[in-house]
Design brief:
With 266 residues, the protein is mainly alpha-helical. Helices cover 72% and strands 2% of the residues. The longest helix has 25 residues.
Length: 266
Amino acid sequence: MPSTVTRRDSAPIAVATAVVAVAALALVVRIALQSGRGQHWDNSAMNTVVAGRDAQLRVLSVLGYVSIGAIAAVALGCLIVALLRGRASLAVGALVVIAGANGTTQILKHNVFTRPDHGFGTLNSLPSGHTTVVASSVGAALLVAPAVFRPVVALAGGFATTLTGASTIVAGWHRPGDVVAALAVSLAWTAAVAVLLHGPRQPLGATVAGSIVGCVGAQIFLLAVGVRPSFGWHGFIQASLVLGAVTLITAMFIVAATAVSPAERS
């Protein structure tokens, strides 16, 4: 009897994950965008970290790699890997994740969400476009990657996503709420596509370790290039909480995206 009969299907996990991601997005919007107190918290959190001139240039150079060309390169890579595996459905799914997440972020940011005036500006920046580009690319890569390589993708993806999201905060481009919203959008699309690509569940042990190493590594990199608490040692706890939260939520995103990605059928 084929072993897939006894292996649990990933589809129910994917459905639940998509629902949780949408609910998380709604919660972030309610708190960080629509609430005056939430806007204050979000704005204060963005200002807990600072970078000197040289560090700022390094951070901006990182963000400079996030472009349309980068999306196209990742999409092409996913397409090639999926076709080499003989899984055209995975290729289509990866492209849908990338296009759907990035399109949704731009529509929500510019046409749906508005920022009430609570004294912190009315220009809406939620969700973060830069973070969506990287997070959706990681979600797509996890869908198409063979199960044996997913821990490596999780490590690299955790590093790239955390580095991008944290860098937008350090650069003053985005508040933490914008980054979390982008992760929620990307996860919702990854999970929704995974529902249609359902198969055996993916073991998570090595992926959890890889995602943690990658996410923490990104924060170590930022510290190494000169990112520091804005208020010195007096602001160390606040800055650590903000960057720690970004790291933890990004790792959760990577693990969840892997959990909904089906393993190979036997």
